[in-house]
């Protein structure tokens, strides 16, 4: 009888204190998260799941694991953690949010193709989700990163029409109007730059605003070409030929540089234009912060790349 009483007492003590231990461990993990110690927070949340797998909020804790990895910049770990939550708790109301966050992680990893595919799939499956406007808006941002101005404008026009009551609607409308200016960006034709360099070495660089480089190319080709003809005229081909080859190299390089400087000119103006758009996105305050899930206690931040 004594052993029975002792066993019952230990059983009662263990199971009555287990929830208190879980609550304390969760609070500790939450404090690490709030302090920005995301990796240690992820480890504590994982330990909490391991020790208390049947806790009522196990899906929320699993979400915190993934969010901690995402905020720490461990995006591949975050993708795996989000996918594990989807597979383990397919009925959780956090499953849709995980799919959206997976797409965001792919984009931050530079895999825009996979990110776009994931976002479009999310919209197809969760068109009525409160995250749909964000996902749709993000597709436009990806197109901007790829300098696909027309596609970005079409996406943002769709956002403003599809979600007129969403805070993303106004920002999307402004951005769609600004993207139209992409057609008026200063441009230099690589073909014209190459043609100019063929007829007059260095003129292609001058055409793209690289006057000093153009003058250097012209002088180099002129001096080497003149020297080659000079020595050839005097029958000193052992000198004329090497100098002529070197001059031909500079001549060909002048054509190549004309093409490259035209492309660089266009790229710099497109990059500046894209930076202005990204600055407006940042200043909107709508992109880069993920609102907490329903019934979630803690605010989960997403460190945006824009």
Brief summary of the model shown:
The protein is an all-alpha fold. It has 13 helices and no strands.
Task: Identify the notable features of this structure and list them briefly.
306 residues, Serine Threonine Protein Phosphatase 5, Tetratricopeptide repeat, 13 helices, 2 domains, mainly alpha, disordered C terminus
At the fourth CATH level, what is the homologous superfamily of the largest domain? Tetratricopeptide repeat domain
* Number of separate strands: 0
The SS-based structural class is mainly alpha
Task: For the record, give the distance between the C-alpha atoms at the N and C termini, rounded to a whole number.
Answer: 69 Å
Mean pLDDT: 82
**Can you tell me the residue ranges where pLDDT is under 50 for at least 5 consecutive residues?**
3-20, 288-306
Order of helices and strands: HHHHHHHHHHHHH
Give me the Rg, rounded.
31 Å
Judging by the overall fold, what is the CATH architecture of the largest domain?
Answer: Alpha Horseshoe
Taking the sheet with the most strands, its summary is: none
Percent helix: over 70%
Strand content: under 5%
CATH-assigned fold name of the largest domain = Serine Threonine Protein Phosphatase 5, Tetratricopeptide repeat
- Individual helix count: 13
Query: How is the quaternary structure best described?
Result: single chain
Number of domains: 2
């Amino acid at each position: 009888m004594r052993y029975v009483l002792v066993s019952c007492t230990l059983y009662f003590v263990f199971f009555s204190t287990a929830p208190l231990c879980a609550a304390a461990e969760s609070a500790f993990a939450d404090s690490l998260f709030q302090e920005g110690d995301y990796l240690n927070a992820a480890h504590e949340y994982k330990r909490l799941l391991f020790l208390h797998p049947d806790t009522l909020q196990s899906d929320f804790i699993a979400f915190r694991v993934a969010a901690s990895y995402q905020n720490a910049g461990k995006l591949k770990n975050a993708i795996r953690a989000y996918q594990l939550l989807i597979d383990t708790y397919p009925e959780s109301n956090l499953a849709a949010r995980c799919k959206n966050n997976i797409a965001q992680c792919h984009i931050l990893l530079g895999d825009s193709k996979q990110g776009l595919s994931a976002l479009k799939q999310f919209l197809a499956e969760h068109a009525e989700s409160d995250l749909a406007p964000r996902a749709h808006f993000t597709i436009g941002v990806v197109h901007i990163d790829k300098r696909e101005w027309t596609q970005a404008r079409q996406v943002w026009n769709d956002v403003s029409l599809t979600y007129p009551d969403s805070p993303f609607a106004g920002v999307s409308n402004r951005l769609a109007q600004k993207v139209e200016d992409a057609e008026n960006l200063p441009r230099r034709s690589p073909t014209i730059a190459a043609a100019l360099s063929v007829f007059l070495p260095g003129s292609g660089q001058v055409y793209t605003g690289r006057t000093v480089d153009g003058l250097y190319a012209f002088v180099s080709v002129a001096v080497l070409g003149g020297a080659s003809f000079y020595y050839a005229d005097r029958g000193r081909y052992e000198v004329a030929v090497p100098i002529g080859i070197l001059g031909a190299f500079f001549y060909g390089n002048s054509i190549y540089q004309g093409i490259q400087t035209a492309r660089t000119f266009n790229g710099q103006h497109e990059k500046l234009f894209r930076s202005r758009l990204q600055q407006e996105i940042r200043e909107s305050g709508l992109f880069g912060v993920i609102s907490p899930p329903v019934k979630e206690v803690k605010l989960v931040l997403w460190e945006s790349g824009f």
